[in-house]
Amino acid sequence: MNPYLRDKLVQKLETMADERGYQLLDYAEFLESKYAERQPAGAATAGNPLSRFADAVEEKLRAGRVSASTIAETMNLMNKAVGVLNGAAAAGKSVASDLMSATSRVVDAAAAAAAAPATPGSTGGTTAATGGASPSGGSPPPAGGAPPTSGSSADPSTPR
After folding, report:
1. pLDDT in tens, 107-154
2. Which pick of 19, 101, 124, 134 has the fewest CB atoms within 10 Å?
3. Model pTM?
4. Chain CA centroid to CA 61, Å
């Protein structure tokens, strides 16, 4: 539709009451069903499921001869609810995306750490983790902390 014709129609619509607007919508849907080209099978069901639900509710209300003001109030409320639910869905997707990226970073870091001892150029000998002597020739560090330095107590809770 050309912009001039669309603007003229919008001007006329803005001056009409809701009852006349719904009559005009019914007529436009009739013309669409009679003269419009056929849509692919999936095109009619495409779109947001919440919006499709709201459209179905509106059609049922119109078919039930409910007043235009009641339909308008109902659709206003439903559009607000759809907006809230879409926001919640977007937030859920964002959280899931953040969890997936954090998980992949952890997996990548773990893979890099696992591959690090097997890389060429690492120091020779075995480490305390494999049960042998450390490359410096000293005893392996005690579990849970650094090796004690000379003159320090063996109790890690005492201040140095």
Report:
1. 998 888 888 765 555 555 555 555 544 455 555 555 555 555 555 455
2. 124
3. 0.43
4. 33
Residue of 29, 13, 15, 17 lying closest to 63 (CA atoms): 29
Q: Are 18 and 68 in contact (CB under 8 A)?
A: yes
pLDDT, tens digit (0-9, with 9 covering 90-100), for 10-32: 998 899 888 888 888 888 888 88
DSSP string, the chain: --HHHHHHHHHHHHTS-HHHHHHHHHHHHHHHHHHSPPPPTTTTT-S-HHHHHHHHHHHHHHHTT--HHHHHHHHHHHHHHHHHHHHHHHHHHHHHHHHHHHHHHHHHHHHHHHHSTTSTTPPSS--GGGTS--TTSSPPPPTTSPPPPTT--S-TTS--
